[in-house]
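Final report, closing paragraph on structural work. Over the funding period we assembled a curated collection of sequence-structure pairs, and we close with a single example.
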Amino acid sequence: MRYNLLGKSNISISELTLGCMSLGSDYQHANKIIDAAVENGINHLDTADLYDFGINEQIVGKSIKHQRDQVVITSKVGNHFQEGSKDWFWDPSKEYIHHAVRDSLKRLQIDYLDVCMLHGGTIDDPIDETIEAFEELKTAGLIRTYGISSIRPNVIREYVNRSSIDVLMTQYSLLDRRPEEEILPLALENNISVVCRGPLAKGMISNKMKDVIDKKGENGYLNYSYTELKNLNDRLHEIRSDYSIQELAMHYVGDHPAITSTVFGASSLDQLEENIHEYNKTDRIDDTIYHRLQEITKAQTYEKHR
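Its predicted structure, as stored:
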């Protein structure tokens, strides 16, 4: 497993990140997956306060208690919720971010977050106030660095221009190449690490691609129709050479110079081991194959929140 620095920070994370949202609510089951991930060199765990309304953070915190110095913990805030009623609303206010981070630390049973991200964001937010909250938390030693999880270019640009963020999380895959238009070059130019989620596009680009498309793809995916998805499956098998489909999907995003780590979820040990195995089969895919992947997929652009 290789490791990369997050932006301008001194935090080093693995090229694969375990997205903890899919771990479920059974601690013993989740603990086995987290332990296996760490044993295989994955040191970056991604959670959020809203995942299972705090339960996910509790499970992650309990699982890493004996190995805190071996892991980098990212959590996300901005969704104001009540654990009892499970009602929530968007709240990027300075007051709530301070409150939310302290609550996350209690659930995780740790003294600081390595990375804290704003879990969304709109152009109408009090952005300077939000940034000030993160800077104060950083100064107080409650977070080591911060960033934003977003797919909105207009919001991302504001944080790039007005803050000292080290990391951006965004959706990126062969079926969702929108970040290539502006966001990835912008992050690269400003030394901001991109952690990408959804590299397998809900399994639409995986070793089980045909079955997943037949099961979930009737209404298409983004601007791909069901027919286009089936045709893409055929074309990928024609050009894949010695690579598996999953290997191509993970490395297409992971090989981009702006990408620091690729996030994948795992609800079982088998899923975890498969993703690690597929990614580790090669250091990077051949340039010819990489360009062929671009030729047979769509170079989309963001139509909203530009």
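The chain has a mean pLDDT of 96. Residues 94-108 form the longest helix (15 residues). We thank the funder for supporting this effort.
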